[in-house]
Every structure is written in C-alpha cells, then in structure tokens.
Amino acid sequence: MGLSDKQDALVKQSWELLKQDIPKNSIRFFTLILEMAPDSKQMFSFTKDTINIEDNPPLKAHAAKLFMMTCEAAIQLREKGQVVVSNTTLKHLGSVHSDKGVMEPQFEIVKEAFLTTLKEAMGGKWSEEMKEAWLEAYDELAAAIKIEMKQES
Ligand code: HEM
Ligand code: ISQ
Q1: Is the CB of 30 under 6 A from ligand 2?
Q2: CA quadruple 76, 80, 81, 87: dihedral positive or negative?
C-alpha cells in the first residue's frame, strides 16, 4: 500500500509541528487516554500514584517515543510499503504490553486519543488526507505489536 507523495509530505509536515511541543502534546495525549479509558491509569507506572500529570517527565518521554515510532512507521510505509520494527524492539513492546494486561480494544482508544492530539496540534492545517496517512501508520504499527502480544500469552 504505502503512502502517496502528498500523504508523506503531510505526515512530515505535521510531525515538525508536533515535535515542537512534545511536553504539551504528550500531556494532552495522555489526558485524552485517561478521559476515554480511566482504568488505564492503573496500568501506567508513571501515573498510578500521581494526581497531577502536568509535570511528569517519564510520561513525556514515553509519549514522545510513541509519537516518534508512529512517525517512523509512516515513513517506512512510504519507503518500503510496510512497517519494519526490529525484532528485539517488537518483542520488547509485545511483552511490555501483554505484561501490563493491555487488551485489543484499548488500541482503538489510544488511536482516537492520538488522532485527536494531532488534530488539535495541527489546528487549521489538519486535513482528512493527513488523518488517513497517520491512521494507516498507526494501524500497521499496532498490528505488529498485537501479533507479538499474542505470541507472548
Ligand atoms: C509502554 C508504544 C499502545 C499501554 C509503551 C512503550 C512504548 C509504547 C514505546 C515503552 C516501552 C518501554 O518501557 O520500553 C506503544 C505503541 C502503541 C501502544 C507504539 C500502539 C501502536 C498501547 C495501548 C495501551 C498501552 C493500546 C493500553 C492502554 C502501555 C503501558 C505501558 C506502555 C501500560 C507501560 C508504561 C509503564 O508503566 O512504564 N508503549 N504503545 N500502549 N504502553 Fe504502549
Ligand atoms: C505508551 N503506550 C501507549 C500510550 C502511551 C501514552 C503516553 C505515554 C506512553 C504510552
């Protein structure tokens, strides 16, 4: 499948904007996940005992990693037509997520939260095509993690 020239440009352009304010976007992302799935608060080591998530360096670092991975997935989709995450990384992500008890439907919640975060960060630059490109990148990445999670359990 891969992404079109235009989608590729849109992803890169939106990533430039997103990374300019990782702390803010990370907190927004996480807040949305908690709004949609309050129970997930217990799953994340960095929020279990915190009431205020505004100043939470581990959360910001984790979210930045997730943003970056999804962006890389988009670039790979464009260049290779598939997402290639190194074997060790995928195994690691598979075991982290299955150990924490992450369930398949939660991937949909994280997807919604991710897209909403992007949409808000882009403001007037947000478009349907941009959404499609990120959606595809996220879905491919999530599919790879889910396969690894199944092999874990
Ligand atoms: C941890 C990425 C989906 C819950 C992580 C880590 C990464 C990551 C990079 C850090 C791993 C490490 O500690 O080395 C992703 C990506 C996802 C995804 C790319 C989708 C494509 C989800 C979903 C949930 C979830 C759907 C469920 C709500 C968690 C939890 C941790 C984690 C609980 C452990 C955090 C901690 O307490 O240290 N994820 N994740 N993730 N993720 Fe995800
Ligand atoms: C890890 N996995 C899924 C979602 C996340 C949100 C914020 C920080 C880390 C995450």
Answers
A1: yes
A2: negative
**Cβ of 110 less than 6 Å from ligand 1:** yes
Cα angle, residue 44 at apex, residues 12 and 82 outer, rounded to 5°: 35
Ligand 1 lined by 44 (C-beta under 6 Å)? yes
4: left (phi over 0), alpha (psi -120 to 50) or beta: beta
Ligand 2 geometric centre to CA of 62 (Å): 6
- Answer yes or no: is the ipTM higher than 0.90: yes
Orientation angle between helical segments 87-99 and 128-152, nearest 10 degrees:
80
Whether this prediction's pTM lies above 0.80 is answered by yes
Nearest ligand to the CA atom of 111 = 1
* pLDDT tens string 126-144: 999 999 999 988 999 999 9
- DSSP, residue by residue, 25-47: HHHHHHHHHHHH-GGGGGT-TTT
Q: How far is the CA of 103 from the centre of ligand 2 (A)?
A: 14
Ligand 1: atom nearest CA of 102 is 27
pLDDT tens sequence across 53-98? 778 888 888 888 888 888 888 888 888 888 888 888 889 999 999 9
